[in-house]
Design brief:
Elements (H helix, E strand, L loop, with lengths): L1 E5 L3 E3 L19 E3 L3 E12 L4 E3 L4 E2 L16 H9 L4 E2 L4 E4 L8 H13 L9 E5 L2 H13 L6 E5 L4 E10 L10 H15 L8 E5 L12 H10 L3 E3 L6 H8 L2 E7 L15 E6 L8 H8 L3 E6 L1 E2 L13 E2 L2 H15 L1
Parallel strand pairs: 7-11, 8-9, 8-11, 9-10, 12-13, 12-14, 14-15, 15-16
Antiparallel strand pairs: 1-4, 2-3, 4-5, 4-11, 5-6, 17-18
Helix pairs in contact: 4-7, 5-8
């Protein structure tokens, strides 16, 4: 049985606040995109692994609806793959009940948890009580993952954790399909989540006054190479330097919910824009010419925040900013001009 949850639709973004004509021509594909048709699909006699691959035992194959992006895994959609990875492997049989699969191989990453997994659950929030939720067993999921489920009041009947290299077998399982290609967001669902967050935090529209700069100076990659110069500039504009990795998730929420401006190089810390109030400002340091996606531009637009960008000079011209990406050198003078323009528009 397949139930339609949400139809596909087209999202066309407004350009960034500081857009210069032609400057983003290298990523024109990001200006507009289609979300996915969201469906709840029922299956019987299946095996699921920790990365969210669902195998149909009667068909001896991997189900493509369970995949993050089917184009990445075409070689897995064969009987040979099933015979090697599933048929001869031990499996843990789960008890009776209706199981729900919404995770994939990137679920343990902060961005993908909040922008891929949580929206899938939020869109069927009222039905979750009927399902046992399958989740990968990892420190991230056990910590921030479970806290966020509680925060958004996403309450399944139970949770079944799948350990690394483990296969679990069940009689009945449903897949809630992805809301859009990863790196993009389903704006309708994100706005519903934002409305919930605003009500949950009891945000006062007159309150936001702080300005936050997220430093990644402790990170192994995707760092600002002239960090002291950049910190000097943002401090001159009254920004507080924050290292989110030093804070608990709830402390991050409290810190960001009072912010009217958020500045950072591309990184998971920008997910905290979820807790800002509408019409706040986000400035992201990126590189030009090559990229995987413009995920934080998409997210800021969905959250009705004012998005700014500033290109830095990469230390490796062949490396994108996303993932284990390049480091950047940011021009302090350009940063100062951008922050001045940002603040003039806030006045």
């Amino acid at each position: 049985m397949t139930k339609n949850i949400m139809d596909s639709y087209t999202i066309t973004h407004a350009m960034p606040e500081n857009y210069v004509a032609g400057e983003l021509d290298f990523c024109k594909a990001e200006f507009s995109y289609d979300t996915y048709k969201v469906q709840l699909m029922d299956f019987q006699d299946c095996v699921v692994n920790r990365t969210g691959f669902l195998y149909e035992t009667k068909k001896f194959k991997l189900n493509e609806y369970s995949l993050l992006d089917v184009n990445r895994y075409t070689k897995f959609l064969t009987h040979k793959h099933y015979l090697k990875k599933v048929l001869i492997k031990p499996k843990r049989k789960l008890g009776p009940g209706k199981y729900l699969l919404v995770h994939d191989e990137w679920t343990n990453e902060h961005y993908h948890w909040f922008c891929d997994l949580l929206p899938r659950l939020f869109v069927i929030k009222e039905q979750l009580k009927d399902y046992i939720l399958l989740l990968p067993d990892s420190p991230y999921v056990r910590n921030i993952g479970l806290q966020s489920l509680e925060f958004f009041e996403l309450q399944p009947a139970d949770i079944e954790f799948i350990k690394e290299k483990e296969l679990v077998k069940m009689k009945n399982v449903s897949i809630l399909t992805h809301t859009c290609l990863t790196g993009y967001v389903n704006a309708k669902i994100i706005r519903e989540m934002k409305a919930f967050t605003t009500q949950k935090l009891k945000l006062d529209p007159a309150a936001p006054a702080s300005k936050i700069y997220i430093s990644r100076d402790k990170a192994r990659y995707r760092k600002i190479l002239n960090e002291p110069d950049i910190q000097s500039v943002v401090k001159d504009f009254g920004y507080e330097v924050i290292r989110y990795e030093d804070l608990t998730w709830k402390e991050q929420i409290a810190q960001t919910s009072s912010a009217k401006s958020l500045v950072s190089i591309h990184g998971a810390g920008l997910i905290n824009m979820f807790y800002m109030q509408e019409h706040g400002s986000v400035l992201e340091f990126r590189r030009n010419k090559i990229y995987h996606n413009q995920c934080f531009w998409h997210l800021s637009q969905a959250l009705q925040l004012k998005y700014y960008y500033l290109f830095g000079t990469p230390d490796d011209d062949s490396l994108v900013i996303e993932g284990n990406g390049c480091n950047l050198t940011v021009d302090p003078n350009l940063l100062s001009k951008t922050l001045k323009a940002l603040e003039d528009r806030q006045a």
